[in-house]
Design goal:
Layout (H helix, E strand, L loop, with lengths): L6 H9 L5 H20 L6 H24 L3 H27 L1
Length: 101
């Protein structure tokens, strides 16, 4: 029996055929990485630079997607990263709002 480190990997393999697994992981990882970038690292950039950043993100996700297909918990890690950054931004927003009120 082959074991995997990723719960999402096992879930997707149980419900998808092998042809769509690559693209399923790619779309999920790309969306989660874009959310993580926007929540934690995005600055106000000019439009062309912003487009370039997202193009590089899509290319970089191809490499990380290979790790997801092997069974490493890339998708699980991105979910945790998005949750932590979302909570941080929410608390930061509440704190700034209470200072101004």
């Amino acid at each position: 029996m082959e074991t995997s480190f990723s719960l999402i990997y096992e879930l997707i393999l149980n419900y998808q055929d092998s042809i769509n697994v690559f693209w399923t992981f790619y779309i999920i990882n790309l969306v989660l990485a874009a959310i993580a970038y926007k929540l934690g690292f995005a600055k106000q950039l000019p439009t062309l630079k912003s487009v370039l950043v997202y193009i590089m993100l899509t290319v970089g996700m191809l490499v990380l997607n290979l790790f997801s297909i092997v069974g490493y918990p890339v998708t699980d890690s991105l979910i945790v990263i998005c949750a932590v950054l979302g909570l941080y931004r929410f608390r930061l927003h509440r704190e700034r709002k209470s200072k101004h009120a």
